[in-house]
Amino acid sequence: MAGVAGPGTGQGAAGGDGDDSLYPIAVLIDELRNEDVQLRLNSIKKLSTIALALGVERTRTELLPFLTDTIYDEDEVLLALAEQLGNFTGLVGGPDFAHCLLPPLESLATVEETVVRDKAVESLRQISQEHTPVALEAHFVPLVKRLASGDWFTSRTSACGLFSVCYPRASHAVKAEIRQHFRSLCSDDTPMVRRAAASKLGEFAKVLELDSVKSEIVPLFTNLASDEQDSVRLLAVEACVSIAQLLSEDDLEALVMPTLRQAAEDKSWRVRYMVADKFSELQKAVGPKITLNDLIPAFQNLLKDCEAEVRAAAAHKVKELCENLPMEGRETIIMNQILPYIKELVSDTNQHVKSALASVIMGLSTILGKGNTIEHLLPLFLAQLKDECPEVRLNIISNLDCVNEVIGIRQLSQSLLPAIVELAEDAKWRVRLAIIEYMPLLAGQLGVEFFDEKLNSLCMAWLVDHVHAIREAATHNLMKLVQKFGKEWAQNTIVPKVLVMANDPNYLHRMTTLFCINALSEACGQEITTKQMLPVVLKMARDQVANVRFNVAKSLQKIGPILDTDALQEEVKPVLQKLGQDEDVDVKYFAQEAISVVAQRLRKLDFPVKDSEEPSAPGADKNHFLRPRGPGEDAGKGPAYQLHVNTRDTLAQLEIAELVHFPQSRDYYPWI
Amino acid sequence: MAGAGGGGCPAGGNDLQWCFSQVKGAVDEDVAEADVISTVEFSHSGDLLATGDKGGRVVIFQREQENKSRPHSRGEYNVYSTFQSHEPEFDYLKSLEIEEKINKIRWLPQQSAAHFLLSTNDKTIKLWKISERDKRAEGYNLKDEDGRLRDPFRITALRVPILKPMDLMVEASPRRIFANAHTYHINSISVNSDHETYLSADDLRINLWHLEITDRSFNIVDIKPANMEELTEVITAAEFHPHQCNVLVYSSSKGTIRLCDMRSSALCDRHSKFFEEPEDPSSRSFFSEIISSVSDVKFSHSGRYMMTRDYLSVKVWDLNMESRPVETHQVHEYLRSKLCSLYENDCIFDKFECCWNGSDSAIMTGSYNNFFRMFDRTTWRDVTLEASRENSKPRASLKPRRVCAGGKRKKDEVSVDSLDFSKKILHTAWHPAENIIAVAATNNLYIFQDKAN
Lengths: 672, 453
Prior knowledge:
CATH class of chain B: Mainly Beta
Shape of chain A: flat
CATH topology of chain B: Methylamine Dehydrogenase, Chain H
Largest sheet of chain B: 4 strands, antiparallel
Radius of gyration of chain A: 34 Å
Largest interface: A-B, 65 and 71 residues
CATH class of the domain at 499-605 in chain A: Mainly Alpha
Structural class of chain B: mainly beta
CATH architecture of the domain at 499-605 in chain A: Alpha Horseshoe
Helix content of chain B: under 10%
Oligomer: heterodimer
CATH superfamily of chain B: YVTN repeat-like/Quinoprotein amine dehydrogenase
Distance between the termini of chain B: 25 Å
Number of strands of chain A: 0
CATH topology of the domain at 499-605 in chain A: Leucine-rich Repeat Variant
Helix content of chain A: over 70%
Number of strands of chain B: 32
Number of helices of chain A: 36
Number of domains of chain B: 1
């Protein structure tokens, strides 16, 4: 888009040569009104091409007027249009004509759909920068005023976002008017407009003179912070951050703090939640002195708030709050004023609160140092590790590395292990899945010795879990472990156990062996694969369950690139050929597919390069993209383990929600 | 509700002379099930009137501008837009049919030239936009005005389409679909005064939605017991306070109303007020519990009172007094002796709704035999009127009806035994500022207005 914005180069105005270069543009213009939304959208996205072909003059006089009135379209088309117009200055003749873009953006700034309005405002803000000061006052400011006094709330909310861009460049008299408009929007009748004004209050304050901030913004802020609507009051908390940054400490204390204190004790939990959620920002904005005097007591109250949502939000901020305290006296403040409240939260009744705390509490150990961690924090960690809620335990385990740095893992290991074992056997498979994902990390932290001793058996147990997702994750986990601990470790500890499962009476476990081999072969390398794994795979080709047999074929295809030519030629090929004659149609299919891949590799290896050391042929694997859809996949008797994941597809819903138009016909409805 | 003052109009109720204005719907005797009206709702200005029916359709009527040639008519309501809001569906997971019947319609406060409303069936709530279009683009590059394709090689100049006026077209388009949040049947929806959230209530739960977010809703009330065998009551209706964004009420099948303050906690399982009238032990019977079930709850426009409808009466509660209602009006007390047969024909489970007039001085609710009742709260007088085609001349006055409970039947009285229980008026609506009412009688919609002016 940026590349085409060459104003006045003359190439724009397409002449009447009748050349066919006009045809594609003609199509684009016609498709602006196509019935298919997708085609309209495509055309809008190429609006710059159309404008370039029309030239700046016709873009201004014909295209823009047309676009100004096309606000009936689907949201996605309008959204694209609003976005395009933000970069259109060059296409209408440069900054001198930037104001021509205002009418279409003005109409887009009044539509009902919030995303479209927001995008139009964003583009207007962009274009405002391209206006000269004179043009700004002549065209842009009147637009802002029109929007600000519009009949519908949509235009007034849009106006709120435009004050801050035109204020700094306006003349003194106009500035006063702009402030006046903003003031009236802050006390608008509809809560939507007051919300929009409250959310832009901080931004507007930043561009105002300090005197005006004190005399005008602060009263507005105080009013919004005591609005009857919760949804307005909570936005004032956000504005508080920006306003606080502008004021001196004394002014802050006198003008803002009373309101902030009130917000922290608001009757509505949503407002208190907002204070908790914005706590770090507030802390930075008000500075260390007010933090100590005011915010710490407020924070203590939030940590013991009666609403769990508020406590959880505050618990999330514990670490950041502590980190941002001034170094001097930090430890004392935390130990005396924060830690007692944290101790309470560890045994909170609400699990979200506990799990929020668990996700950050480990971070305190680096702030407090080894001594305090062992004496004060460790008991809390251990209590959380024994928590009845798995999410709490999980959050502790996933942050072990912070503690590791401070006190070393051995200190924790005694109490850690039972907790991990318990999670590994949790009745909920999602919990088991989550803990598997932490295994490679834990293994790295604990070292191979400790791992072999305590955790190895767990990892093997997951391979025979009754949930497929767990078995799959366990397989993946083994691969990660081998990458971490090396081939030799794999050969001694993992591979023998995996291969034993090939004789399991349960065919699902036998298949797990194959899946493990698929995952491990590359990490283990040619020797282990050929000598230990291949014989087992080949033996399984005689399995009585067809699912196992066709997975043998798939495995052979997968590990083929790792094997040497001799093994391929003499061992793999005969077995695959035998499977290719199998009575089961799926086995036959996958065997034949594997044969073709293996044969291709053999050809490549034999000729022209005779060296069997050639790395795996990259083309071999790609082949399956070309294959026809496998019969087993829609025959309904494919692998029994396939999981169906049900997701709510919001896009699909949007598709259903297409425009329905009913004519006002009399015979349609029986009672008219 | 800004326009709720209704200052100019008199107290309403029976001091007014109500007269016929319009009737919509087919005349034939045999009524198609799909045409039965299931909800009626005026927009906040009263200029639009929406109805939903069992066939999943929504019909919107618009009030015509004052007509100089007929100074007496104060603007009739004519069809503005008709659309299919819900279609019958089948829940394959639960093997349940989901009816298309529109349970409730609620208008959003008007915020742009277009109008928005929420409509719901048992499971899915939809946000509809009703907008007007009066311009059409003209002029193509690749074809002539008559639609013939042009030779692509003969295109020598580009044409930008221009917009020309056309006949007004009203479009209804679904903007949001709020689905998959209710296990039980949705009985109420109510838009919050913050204009950005609304609630939806089913038999056991109340969810809070943001009007712009469809994939998430918050459960704020859940009365489902851990063991469904311990279930003793269900939620029958719920509504937000008209001005206080944090206050909502919900009524139950036990005849009680709970008021929740959303400020105090994210979950409103614990109510902050509990409205219950002590039971009179002398009138206790087998049917007591059934007939005390609240079928509708509505806040007054002022927000000071709320009204509840149970089977035989309508009650007005002061929000500041939980112990008993400030007013109780009998709707059809003569049915008390008939409860046994009403139980047998299931009529006892009918869910009558109720509504306030614009100034909160009068209330209206339905009954059987196409009768509906109005109660004046200041004069304490009441009237029974009938929605029928018999006297459907324009501006014909409605005659008050009387039901005789027993003994000797006077002239003009209707005997209880001759009431037609298949003709019930469940849904009524009162214009927010004027004395215009809409009464749904099976498949017909009657519009009445006062004779004054």
